[in-house]
Amino acid sequence: MIAHEFKIFDAHLHSYGLFLDSNKSIIEYLDAHNVEKAIITTINRAAKISPQMDDIDTNQLKTYKMIPKGQLNHDDVIEICNQAPKRFYPFFWFNPNMDSQNEEESYKILEEHFKKGFCGIKLQPSINLIKIPRDILKLIDFMQEYNKEYPIFIHLSPKFSFFSGTSIKDFSILATKYPDLTIILGHAALSMELAIDIGLNLKKYKNIIFETSCSIPLGILSLIRNVGHKRLIFGSDAPTTNPLQLEIDKILCLPISKTQKEDIFYNNVYEFMNKF
Predict the structure, then answer these.
(1) Exposure pattern of 25-45 as b/e (b: 16+ CB <10 Å)?
(2) Where are the domains of the chain?
(3) pLDDT in tens, 56-68
(4) Measuring CA to CA, how many Å separate 210 from each of 23, 29, 155, 156, 190?
(5) Among 37, 128, 180, 261, which is least packed by CB within 10 angstroms?
(6) Does the domain made of 8-273 have the CATH classification 3.40.50.11810?
């Protein structure tokens, strides 16, 4: 029995993960939580929590590779989408940091996936060590030449030991340079401080949409009050980082209206994704 009354469009779903019951398909998993549609991408199979990480010093971490060179295989996403084409919106997890030998091949791979129905790009700055906007200018120009409507999903990535992170300034520069580009800012309320900073400083960029996965509920509420609920979209990052129900509960518990919850859970993301 579904524990809530809302239909859901999940803007941040992965093809598999720790929180997917091995006896269930991803579609059964979504059905159990009333998720009618989802933006889906693959997952980095190379990134594993390893006990050997304790033996790596800070200098080694700077060169530690958590992802293979080139592009990830997205056959798992294609297989899932083929089972329910009207339900899924596949995004390609793209690595823009590659050597010159792999660059031409990478863009060929990306175009092939666009032709197969992929309708957006996902970036993981902390895993691929991407500097925003410097490292993605060619990628965005390529995307917009193919289809100006395609959104780009970028993880908010705070600074840590071997990566300088993404900043509010990075996103403001990107949004200004590409005013017609829909930018989905993932994990937008990752902490209270970030949520306040983001809400106050990115409010004026109407092409930035704020996604809720891995966020704290009060941070989500702060964003609603600063940028308006129509610019928030529900994402779970399930079944990789979180159980779906945990992320759903963060929206359910908010002291906002049913209409606002309906918009965040479904209507807001549907408005700009239903064209694909």
Answers:
(1) ebeebbeebbbebbbbbbbbe
(2) 8-273
(3) 444 444 444 556 6
(4) 33, 24, 10, 10, 11
(5) 180
(6) no
Taking the model in full, what pTM does it have?
0.92
Give me 249's structure tokens.
């509960």
Q: Roughly how many angstroms between the first and final C-alpha of the chain, as a whole number?
A: 31
Q: Per residue in 48-99, pLDDT tens?
A: 544 344 444 444 444 445 566 779 999 999 999 999 999 999 999 999 988 7
Structure-token pair, residue 194: 């970030």
Q: Cβ(217)–Cβ(211) under 8 Å? A: no
